[in-house]
Amino acid sequence: MAEKVNFGDDLVSPEEKTRRVGAVFSSVARRYDVMNDLMSGGMHRLWKNRFVARVKPRAGERILDMAGGTGDIAFRLARRGALVTVADINPDMLEVGKERAAGKRIPGLDWSVQNAEALSFADATFDGYTIVFGIRNVTDIPAALSEAHRVLKRGGRFYCMEFSTSDWPGFAELYEAWAKNVIPRIGKIVADDEASYRYLVESIRRFPKPQAFAQLVADAGFVRANAEPMLGGLVSIFSGWKI
User: Fold this and answer.
1) Which of 47, 69, 150, 188 has the most crowded CB, counting CB atoms within 10 A?
2) Does 3.30.565.10 match the CATH number of domain 5-241?
Protein backbone atom coordinates (compact mmCIF):
# COMPACT_ATOMS: atom_id res chain seq x y z
CA MET A 1 0.00 0.00 0.00
CA ALA A 2 1.32 3.45 -0.91
CA GLU A 3 2.38 5.63 2.01
CA LYS A 4 -0.34 7.96 3.23
CA VAL A 5 0.13 11.61 4.17
CA ASN A 6 -2.00 14.06 6.09
CA PHE A 7 -4.37 16.41 4.32
CA GLY A 8 -5.49 18.19 7.45
CA ASP A 9 -6.81 15.39 9.65
CA ASP A 10 -7.45 13.02 6.71
CA LEU A 11 -4.95 10.41 5.51
CA VAL A 12 -4.64 10.41 1.72
CA SER A 13 -2.12 9.45 -0.94
CA PRO A 14 0.58 12.02 -1.77
CA GLU A 15 -0.99 12.57 -5.19
CA GLU A 16 -4.40 13.15 -3.63
CA LYS A 17 -2.97 15.67 -1.15
CA THR A 18 -1.35 17.66 -3.95
CA ARG A 19 -4.62 17.66 -5.87
CA ARG A 20 -6.71 18.67 -2.86
CA VAL A 21 -4.33 21.46 -1.82
CA GLY A 22 -4.53 22.81 -5.37
CA ALA A 23 -8.31 22.80 -5.17
CA VAL A 24 -8.24 24.62 -1.82
CA PHE A 25 -6.15 27.50 -3.12
CA SER A 26 -8.00 27.75 -6.41
CA SER A 27 -11.17 28.09 -4.36
CA VAL A 28 -9.88 30.76 -1.97
CA ALA A 29 -7.57 32.74 -4.31
CA ARG A 30 -9.87 35.73 -4.82
CA ARG A 31 -10.60 36.11 -1.11
CA TYR A 32 -7.25 34.99 0.23
CA ASP A 33 -5.96 38.40 1.35
CA VAL A 34 -9.28 39.49 2.84
CA MET A 35 -9.44 36.26 4.80
CA ASN A 36 -5.89 36.75 6.09
CA ASP A 37 -6.92 40.10 7.53
CA LEU A 38 -10.03 38.65 9.17
CA MET A 39 -8.30 35.55 10.55
CA SER A 40 -5.35 37.43 12.06
CA GLY A 41 -6.98 40.75 12.92
CA GLY A 42 -4.56 42.34 10.43
CA MET A 43 -1.52 41.07 12.34
CA HIS A 44 -0.27 39.11 9.32
CA ARG A 45 0.85 42.44 7.86
CA LEU A 46 3.08 43.12 10.88
CA TRP A 47 4.47 39.57 10.78
CA LYS A 48 5.29 39.94 7.08
CA ASN A 49 7.04 43.26 7.67
CA ARG A 50 9.12 41.65 10.41
CA PHE A 51 9.89 38.71 8.13
CA VAL A 52 11.17 40.92 5.30
CA ALA A 53 13.25 42.92 7.79
CA ARG A 54 14.94 39.64 8.73
CA VAL A 55 15.56 38.74 5.07
CA LYS A 56 17.24 42.13 4.45
CA PRO A 57 16.73 42.17 0.66
CA ARG A 58 19.37 44.09 -1.26
CA ALA A 59 19.10 45.95 -4.53
CA GLY A 60 19.78 43.74 -7.54
CA GLU A 61 19.92 40.39 -5.77
CA ARG A 62 17.75 37.53 -6.99
CA ILE A 63 15.20 36.07 -4.60
CA LEU A 64 12.82 33.16 -5.16
CA ASP A 65 9.57 33.71 -3.28
CA MET A 66 8.05 30.24 -3.25
CA ALA A 67 4.32 29.83 -2.62
CA GLY A 68 4.30 33.55 -3.33
CA GLY A 69 0.70 33.48 -4.50
CA THR A 70 -0.89 36.89 -4.28
CA GLY A 71 2.42 38.73 -3.91
CA ASP A 72 2.38 40.09 -0.36
CA ILE A 73 5.99 39.12 0.38
CA ALA A 74 7.27 39.68 -3.16
CA PHE A 75 5.98 43.26 -3.20
CA ARG A 76 7.82 44.03 0.03
CA LEU A 77 11.05 42.48 -1.31
CA ALA A 78 10.80 44.25 -4.68
CA ARG A 79 10.23 47.64 -3.08
CA ARG A 80 13.71 47.26 -1.56
CA GLY A 81 15.23 46.64 -4.99
CA ALA A 82 15.39 42.84 -5.09
CA LEU A 83 14.65 41.01 -8.35
CA VAL A 84 11.95 38.58 -7.28
CA THR A 85 10.69 35.44 -8.96
CA VAL A 86 7.23 34.77 -7.56
CA ALA A 87 6.58 31.04 -7.76
CA ASP A 88 3.50 29.04 -6.85
CA ILE A 89 2.09 25.65 -7.78
CA ASN A 90 -1.32 27.24 -8.20
CA PRO A 91 -1.88 29.37 -11.33
CA ASP A 92 -5.05 30.93 -9.87
CA MET A 93 -3.10 32.40 -6.96
CA LEU A 94 -0.46 33.76 -9.34
CA GLU A 95 -3.11 35.42 -11.49
CA VAL A 96 -4.38 37.31 -8.45
CA GLY A 97 -0.81 38.34 -7.68
CA LYS A 98 -0.20 39.58 -11.22
CA GLU A 99 -3.36 41.68 -11.10
CA ARG A 100 -2.36 43.18 -7.77
CA ALA A 101 1.17 43.93 -9.03
CA ALA A 102 -0.20 45.70 -12.10
CA GLY A 103 -2.42 47.86 -9.90
CA LYS A 104 0.47 48.75 -7.62
CA ARG A 105 2.92 49.23 -10.53
CA ILE A 106 5.65 47.21 -8.84
CA PRO A 107 8.62 46.41 -11.13
CA GLY A 108 11.22 43.68 -10.81
CA LEU A 109 8.85 40.71 -10.61
CA ASP A 110 8.78 37.48 -12.61
CA TRP A 111 5.97 34.95 -12.22
CA SER A 112 6.39 31.20 -12.52
CA VAL A 113 4.23 28.12 -11.92
CA GLN A 114 6.48 25.81 -9.88
CA ASN A 115 6.24 22.76 -7.66
CA ALA A 116 8.38 23.39 -4.57
CA GLU A 117 9.39 19.73 -4.53
CA ALA A 118 10.83 19.80 -8.08
CA LEU A 119 11.89 23.30 -9.15
CA SER A 120 12.81 23.92 -12.80
CA PHE A 121 15.61 26.37 -11.93
CA ALA A 122 19.30 25.54 -12.31
CA ASP A 123 21.56 24.94 -9.34
CA ALA A 124 22.88 28.05 -7.55
CA THR A 125 20.48 30.48 -9.21
CA PHE A 126 19.25 32.61 -6.32
CA ASP A 127 20.71 34.72 -3.52
CA GLY A 128 17.67 34.18 -1.31
CA TYR A 129 14.71 31.83 -0.97
CA THR A 130 11.57 32.80 0.92
CA ILE A 131 8.39 30.89 1.66
CA VAL A 132 5.63 32.29 3.89
CA PHE A 133 2.63 30.31 5.12
CA GLY A 134 3.22 27.79 2.35
CA ILE A 135 5.58 25.04 3.49
CA ARG A 136 2.93 23.24 5.54
CA ASN A 137 0.88 22.70 2.37
CA VAL A 138 3.75 20.96 0.57
CA THR A 139 3.30 17.21 0.27
CA ASP A 140 6.99 16.30 0.73
CA ILE A 141 8.53 18.98 2.96
CA PRO A 142 12.08 17.50 3.05
CA ALA A 143 12.09 17.43 -0.76
CA ALA A 144 11.07 21.09 -0.88
CA LEU A 145 13.79 22.06 1.60
CA SER A 146 16.35 20.12 -0.44
CA GLU A 147 15.27 21.98 -3.58
CA ALA A 148 15.55 25.30 -1.75
CA HIS A 149 19.12 24.41 -0.83
CA ARG A 150 19.93 23.32 -4.40
CA VAL A 151 18.78 26.52 -6.15
CA LEU A 152 20.56 28.84 -3.70
CA LYS A 153 24.06 30.12 -4.37
CA ARG A 154 26.80 29.57 -1.81
CA GLY A 155 26.21 32.13 0.89
CA GLY A 156 22.51 32.22 -0.05
CA ARG A 157 19.93 32.43 2.69
CA PHE A 158 16.70 30.57 3.35
CA TYR A 159 13.83 32.21 5.19
CA CYS A 160 10.47 30.69 6.02
CA MET A 161 7.53 31.86 8.12
CA GLU A 162 4.88 29.41 9.20
CA PHE A 163 2.11 28.78 11.70
CA SER A 164 2.14 26.07 14.35
CA THR A 165 0.56 25.74 17.78
CA SER A 166 1.32 28.09 20.66
CA ASP A 167 2.91 27.03 23.95
CA TRP A 168 1.51 29.98 25.91
CA PRO A 169 -0.92 28.70 28.56
CA GLY A 170 -4.36 30.23 28.17
CA PHE A 171 -3.59 31.85 24.82
CA ALA A 172 -3.06 28.45 23.19
CA GLU A 173 -6.50 27.26 24.27
CA LEU A 174 -8.17 30.51 23.21
CA TYR A 175 -6.55 30.41 19.78
CA GLU A 176 -7.45 26.74 19.29
CA ALA A 177 -11.10 27.49 20.07
CA TRP A 178 -11.04 30.49 17.69
CA ALA A 179 -9.39 28.51 14.92
CA LYS A 180 -11.62 25.48 15.23
CA ASN A 181 -14.97 27.20 15.68
CA VAL A 182 -14.71 30.66 14.13
CA ILE A 183 -12.28 30.58 11.18
CA PRO A 184 -14.27 27.99 9.17
CA ARG A 185 -17.43 30.03 9.73
CA ILE A 186 -15.71 33.18 8.49
CA GLY A 187 -14.57 31.19 5.48
CA LYS A 188 -18.14 30.17 4.78
CA ILE A 189 -19.45 33.73 5.04
CA VAL A 190 -16.67 35.59 3.22
CA ALA A 191 -15.30 33.02 0.76
CA ASP A 192 -18.30 30.66 0.59
CA ASP A 193 -15.88 27.86 1.46
CA GLU A 194 -15.99 26.43 4.96
CA ALA A 195 -14.19 23.18 4.06
CA SER A 196 -11.03 24.85 2.74
CA TYR A 197 -10.59 26.92 5.88
CA ARG A 198 -11.25 23.89 8.07
CA TYR A 199 -8.37 22.19 6.24
CA LEU A 200 -6.10 25.22 6.75
CA VAL A 201 -6.78 25.15 10.50
CA GLU A 202 -6.08 21.41 10.64
CA SER A 203 -2.84 21.85 8.67
CA ILE A 204 -1.62 24.43 11.20
CA ARG A 205 -2.36 22.10 14.09
CA ARG A 206 -0.32 19.32 12.46
CA PHE A 207 2.72 21.41 11.55
CA PRO A 208 5.88 20.61 13.58
CA LYS A 209 6.86 22.68 16.60
CA PRO A 210 9.47 25.39 15.85
CA GLN A 211 12.58 23.51 16.96
CA ALA A 212 11.47 20.35 15.17
CA PHE A 213 11.04 22.23 11.90
CA ALA A 214 14.37 24.03 12.40
CA GLN A 215 15.95 20.58 12.58
CA LEU A 216 14.39 19.71 9.20
CA VAL A 217 15.99 22.87 7.79
CA ALA A 218 19.35 21.75 9.17
CA ASP A 219 18.83 18.23 7.81
CA ALA A 220 18.42 19.75 4.32
CA GLY A 221 22.00 21.04 4.52
CA PHE A 222 21.51 24.57 5.85
CA VAL A 223 23.87 25.86 8.54
CA ARG A 224 22.88 28.06 11.49
CA ALA A 225 19.32 26.78 11.16
CA ASN A 226 17.25 28.84 13.55
CA ALA A 227 13.68 29.34 14.72
CA GLU A 228 12.36 32.69 15.97
CA PRO A 229 8.99 31.96 17.63
CA MET A 230 6.33 34.61 18.09
CA LEU A 231 3.21 34.32 20.23
CA GLY A 232 4.57 31.21 21.87
CA GLY A 233 5.29 29.54 18.54
CA LEU A 234 1.95 30.26 16.88
CA VAL A 235 4.01 31.98 14.17
CA SER A 236 7.74 31.41 13.66
CA ILE A 237 10.43 32.74 11.34
CA PHE A 238 12.95 30.09 10.29
CA SER A 239 16.31 30.77 8.71
CA GLY A 240 19.40 29.00 7.42
CA TRP A 241 22.39 29.60 5.15
CA LYS A 242 23.97 27.57 2.37
CA ILE A 243 27.76 27.40 2.54
Assistant:
1) 69
2) no
